[in-house]
Amino acid sequence: MDKKVIVVGGASGVGAACVRSLAAAGASVVSLDRSEEAGQEVARQAGQRFRLCDVTDRDQVFTAVDGAAADMGGLDALVHVAGILVQGPAEEATDQDWARAMDINGRGPMLTNQAALPHLKKGERSSITNFASSAALTAYPNGAVYAASKGAVTAWTRTIAVEWAQFGIRANVVHPSAATSMVEQHLSKMNDEEKASYAEMMRQKVPLGGKFGDPDRDIAPVITFLVGDGARFMTGQNVAVNGGYYI
Ligand SMILES: NC(=O)c1ccc[n+]([C@@H]2O[C@H](COP(=O)([O-])OP(=O)(O)OC[C@H]3O[C@@H](n4cnc5c(N)ncnc54)[C@H](O)[C@@H]3O)[C@@H](O)[C@H]2O)c1
Question: Which residue has the least CA distance to atom 37 on ligand 1?
Answer without folding.
Answer: 35
